[in-house]
Design a protein that fits this description.
By secondary structure, the chain is α/β, with parallel strands linked by helices. 49% of the residues lie in helices and 21% in strands. The N and C termini lie far apart (46 Å). The relative contact order is 0.15.
C-alpha cells in the first residue's frame, strides 16, 4: 500500500468523481482508476462503487477512509516535526459551512489565518446546517461551521467559535417601539407577516424551538415567503414584506446602513452559538490543527465573544 494510493482514494472520496479527482491530483483519469484498483487489491475489498449514477463509498470504503485520513495526517505531522527545517504550516483545508458563518465569520477568520500562514488554500462550500452535518459523516470535509450544537453520539468534536443571538428585524416604518414588541411579542407576531428561512436551516430550527417554548404556534403565523439566506430575508424586510428573526451578526450591517430596525429580545432563549466541527475518528494534520486553534481564539481575542 502506497501513500499515493491513499491520497488518490481520499480525493475521490471527497469529490465522488474520478475526473475531478484526476484534475486535483494532476494525474490522468486512468491513473486514478489504477491507484484505486491497486489499493482495493491490496486490501482485498471494494472501496468504491462506480456506475451511471456516479461514485459512492462502500461500507468498507467509509471505514477505511478514516484510516486513510489518519495515515496521511500522521505523514504530514512527521514531516512537520522531523523533516521540515522551518516548520511551515501549509496545505489545503476543506470547509462546509452554513450561511451565517460562511458570509459573516469565515472570511475574516481565513484572512487572519493566511496572514500568519500564507501557504494555505481554503475550499469553502455553503450548505444548510443539516446538509453540512451529513457531509461530515462522509469525511468529505475537514471542518463544518454551523450554528447548531452537536452531541457526542454523532462522532463530531465541536469548538465554540462565536457567541451570537437571534434578533427581530423590522421595516424602518414599524410604529411599535422595541419595549412594546418585547412585552407583547406573541401578539405582535400574530398580526405581522413573518418571513421564514427555508427548510433545513439551522436558524429555522432554532426559531421553531424558541417560538414553541414561549407559546407561539407557528401554524398561526402569517408567512408570506420562505427565503434561502439571511441577506434575502433582510432585503425583504427592508422592502416592507414583514419581520423576521435573524442572526445579529447578519443584521448589524443592515442596521448600520439604516435599512432595517432591530429589536434585541433580551431573553437567554434567543442566544445562539456558532461551532467548528471535525470528526473524532480523524487526526488533525498540522495545518488543520493550527486553523482549528486559530478559529477558536479569533473572536474571543478580537471581540470578546
Amino acid at each position: 500500500m502506497e501513500l499515493k494510493q491513499l491520497e488518490v482514494f481520499v480525493c475521490v472520496a471527497k469529490t465522488l468523481n474520478f475526473s475531478k479527482a484526476a484534475e486535483e491530483m494532476y494525474i490522468s483519469q486512468p491513473g486514478v482508476s489504477t491507484h484505486i484498483s491497486s489499493l482495493e487489491k491490496t486490501l482485498g475489498t471494494q472501496l468504491l462503487i462506480r456506475n451511471t449514477k456516479g461514485v459512492s463509498l462502500t461500507k468498507s470504503g467509509t471505514q477505511f477512509l478514516a484510516y486513510a485520513h489518519k495515515i496521511l495526517a500522521l505523514k504530514k505531522q512527521a514531516l512537520h516535526d522531523v523533516g521540515s527545517a522551518n516548520k511551515d504550516v501549509e496545505g489545503v483545508i476543506d470547509i462546509i459551512s452554513s450561511t451565517i458563518p460562511v458570509q459573516h465569520l469565515l472570511p475574516e477568520i481565513i484572512s487572519s489565518f493566511q496572514k500568519q500562514w500564507p501557504n494555505t488554500i481554503f475550499n469553502v462550500k455553503q450548505a444548510a446546517s443539516g446538509e453540512a452535518l451529513r457531509a461530515m459523516s462522509d469525511f468529505r470535509y475537514d471542518f463544518a461551521m454551523v450554528g447548531t450544537s452537536t452531541d457526542d453520539e454523532n462522532g463530531l468534536n465541536h469548538r465554540l467559535i462565536y457567541n451570537d443571538e437571534l434578533v427581530l428585524v423590522c421595516p424602518n416604518d414599524t410604529k411599535e417601539e422595541s419595549d412594546y414588541i418585547r412585552e407583547n411579542f406573541g401578539e405582535f407576531l400574530h398580526k405581522t407577516p413573518f418571513i421564514m428561512r427555508e427548510s433545513g436551516s439551522g436558524t429555522r430550527r432554532e426559531i421553531e424551538t424558541i417560538l414553541l417554548k414561549i407559546g407561539i404556534d407557528m401554524a398561526n403565523l402569517q408567512v408570506p415567503a420562505y427565503l434561502p439566506d439571511s441577506h434575502s430575508i433582510l432585503l425583504a424586510v427592508s422592502h416592507g414584506m414583514g419581520v423576521s428573526l435573524i442572526s445579529k451578526v447578519a443584521a448589524d450591517m443592515y442596521v448600520d446602513a439604516e435599512l432595517v430596525k432591530m429589536v434585541q429580545m433580551q431573553n437567554p432563549l434567543f442566544r445562539r452559538q456558532i461551532f467548528l466541527l471535525y470528526n473524532k475518528a480523524l487526526w488533525l494534520s498540522p495545518v488543520q490543527r493550527a486553523f482549528c486553534d486559530h478559529a477558536e481564539r479569533f473572536y474571543s481575542s478580537c471581540s470578546g465573544a
